[in-house]
Amino acid sequence: MRLTRKEFLAIGAGAVANALANDIDGAMEGAAAPRQALGGMPEFADMEGAYAALVTPYRKDGSIDEEMVERLVWHLLDNGLRGFYLTGSTGEGFLLSPDERVRIYERVVKAARGRAKIIAHVGALSTNEAVKLARRAAKAGVDWVSSTAPVYFGQNFDAAFAHYSAIAGATDLPFMIYSIGANVVPDRDAKFFEIPNVKGMKYTGYAYWTVKQLKRRLPKPAVFFAGADEQELCAFAYGDTFSGCIGTTDNMLPAHHARIWRLASEGRFVEAQPLMDEVVRLVELVVAAPNASYWKSIMRYIGFDCGPARSPAGQVLGESEYQAYAAKLDALGFIERKDNA
Predict the structure, then answer these.
(1) 84 has pLDDT over 50
(2) What are residue 144's DSSP bridge partners?
(3) pTM for this structure?
């Protein structure tokens, strides 16, 4: 069904919820809707869709809750997501030990059972540590490895090129650049794709036209994902530039993101707008939170208590703090509360 603008403006949260409930099978089918020709290369097969930048769950003692990892994987796949981006910013990768990160890679691979594409972020302060993590991620069975540019040290192009070259060359897996908080300079950044295994980018920014320019300059096929949840529909409007999205709120509204992708891939942007509006309203609460433990508590709200964020990203919330934040989620009116409050 295609909506007129007048009909779209008349749609409320209840209608959006009903559309999701009635079309979850379609959302799952749409997770792999084709958007761009990638030359039939096996590393790009079935990549298109919405991905969760997976939250890392902790037990009360602060250790990784591996059973919750599995529950999250099953829940998110059942709600239409295509795959997972592990131990990135949302997953608190830089606050985890290498062994903890590897246990997450292994558990997600086990839980997914071949149903998902799995991208392991292996970025680390040290290039050597990132190389070791990449090899361990490959052994765990992930599909891609990824990394941010150098952190703290070596923040220039030559250092980033050497950093990416070492990590990408550590395995035979395709490598995805994680661009966050940096401008894409098409002529400069096209050189990264001369590194043999560099075949994609997760772009968390808003200058989509620069990504489109970059893609035109590449000497080989590559896949790009939009990383700003609140603007993913804008990214999808850039034709064949993006093959999907990777985001934080995909953990909390997986069916929304899967459906947005499917509708956009079919050119049904007006129908996607009410869903996008709800995502934006949730993102407003996420970015306004005093620290990461607040937005991470949304997982508790929907029935998957993942604990607080690790310091310094977050601090343990008192019950009154959680309930005050939960009241704001109640007021949104489109997220089902399952915390038994």
Answers:
(1) yes
(2) 119
(3) 0.89
